[in-house]
């Protein structure tokens, strides 16, 4: 079915009024879903750049993939274009409405479907197993990460996580901490709960039968990536990709705060 520019633009505007668009999809006739505001979409492009080598290494062709918390379907469509049979789910009905519209207009023939579903729901536990589950920006937004991870693990052979992690280092053995509620933060959604470490996620999944893990972390990025699998894969044969650039900056930052505190104590502004 062909769509003219007017009908596409009207539908984009209608869905945008229900909920602002997160991704800037370039639709037929040059219609954009979020023109002029590239911040959020730019972040997703950076995320895709980090994930694309993983997708290539995992060879998605013919694989059954679950995109957990699929939002508007940006990454679902990317994986489907690589040959995967993708099912995207999200608890937000408005996002699924937008995802189905994008698929209908942009890629009607791709093997991808979208539906509203919760990882905690009984319906989710009845699903068939997936070769791969993609969880982007999901696990730190659930109030019960242990239950959510157990539910995902029960349906997946391999899981790729991308989340706001408690970074590697001396505190990596810590399980997690509760994210502070800060409405003044630009990136605060009101749904952020746990900041989990690599170790925390790995230990939870190990209880569900996952044996292999591959860590990817870059201090320039706010989020970390973890690949977890039940069976061995060539990706687990390579060493963890942990970059350590930025430690000098962190050291200088701590030194600056220490110096300010010392000056405050000397001048009497700070109690020792």
Low-confidence stretches: none
Content-based structural category? alpha/beta
Count of alpha/pi helices: 8
Tally of structural domains: 1
Strand order of the largest sheet: 3-2-1-4-5-9-8-10
What is the fourth-level CATH superfamily? Vaccinia Virus protein VP39
Silhouette:
globular
User: Which range does the strand content fall in?
Assistant: 15-25%
Task: Estimate the helix proportion, in percent.
Answer: 25-40%
Order of helices and strands: HHEHEHEHEHEEEHEEEH
Q: Sheet bearing the most strands, described?
A: 8 strands, mixed
CATH architecture: 3-Layer(aba) Sandwich
The N- and C-terminal alpha carbons lie at a distance of: 73 Å
What is the tally of beta strands?
Answer: 10
Mean pLDDT: 83
CATH class reads: Alpha Beta
Could you characterize what this model shows?
By secondary structure, this protein is an alpha/beta fold. It has one domain (about 5-245): Vaccinia Virus protein VP39 (Rossmann fold, 3-Layer(aba) Sandwich). The protein has helices at about 5-20, 40-60, 75-80, 95-105, 120-125, 145-155, 200-205, 245-265; strands at about 65-70, 85-90, 110-115, 130-135, 160-165, 175-180, 195, 210-215, 225-230, 240. The strands form two sheets. An eight-stranded mixed sheet has the order 3-2-1-4-5-9-8-10, with helices on both faces. Strands 6-7 form a two-stranded antiparallel ribbon. Strand 4, helix 6 (about 145-155) and strand 5 form a beta-alpha-beta unit. Helix 1 (about 5-20) packs antiparallel against helix 4 (about 95-105). It starts with a helix and ends in a 5-residue tail after the last helix. The relative contact order is 0.10.
């Amino acid at each position: 079915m062909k769509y003219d520019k007017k009908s596409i633009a009207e539908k984009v505007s209608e869905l945008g009024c229900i909920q602002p668009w997160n991704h800037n999809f370039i639709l037929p006739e040059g219609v954009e879903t979020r023109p002029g505001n590239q911040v959020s979409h730019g972040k997703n492009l950076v995320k895709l750049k980090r994930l694309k080598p993983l997708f290539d290494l995992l060879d998605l062709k013919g694989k059954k993939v679950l995109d957990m918390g699929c939002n508007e379907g940006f990454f679902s469509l990317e994986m489907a274009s690589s040959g995967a049979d993708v099912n995207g789910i999200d608890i937000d009905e408005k996002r699924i409405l937008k995802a189905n519209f994008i698929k209908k207009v942009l890629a009607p023939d791709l093997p991808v479907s979208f539906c509203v579903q919760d990882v905690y729901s009984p319906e989710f536990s009845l699903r068939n197993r997936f070769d791969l589950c993609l969880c982007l920006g999901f696990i730190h937004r659930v109030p019960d990460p242990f239950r959510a991870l157990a539910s995902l693990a029960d349906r997946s052979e391999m899981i790729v996580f991308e989340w706001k992690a408690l970074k590697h280092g001396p505190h990596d053995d810590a399980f997690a901490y509760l994210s502070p509620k800060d409405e003044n933060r630009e990136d605060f959604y009101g749904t952020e709960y746990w900041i989990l470490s690599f170790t925390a996620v790995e230990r939870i999944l190990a209880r569900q039968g996952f044996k292999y893990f591959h860590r990817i972390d870059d201090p320039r990025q706010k989020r970390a990536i973890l690949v977890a699998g039940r069976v061995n894969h060539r990706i687990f044969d390579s060493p963890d990709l942990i970059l350590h650039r930025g430690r000098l900056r962190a050291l200088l930052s701590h030194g600056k705060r220490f110096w300010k505190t010392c000056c405050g104590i000397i001048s009497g502004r700070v109690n020792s």
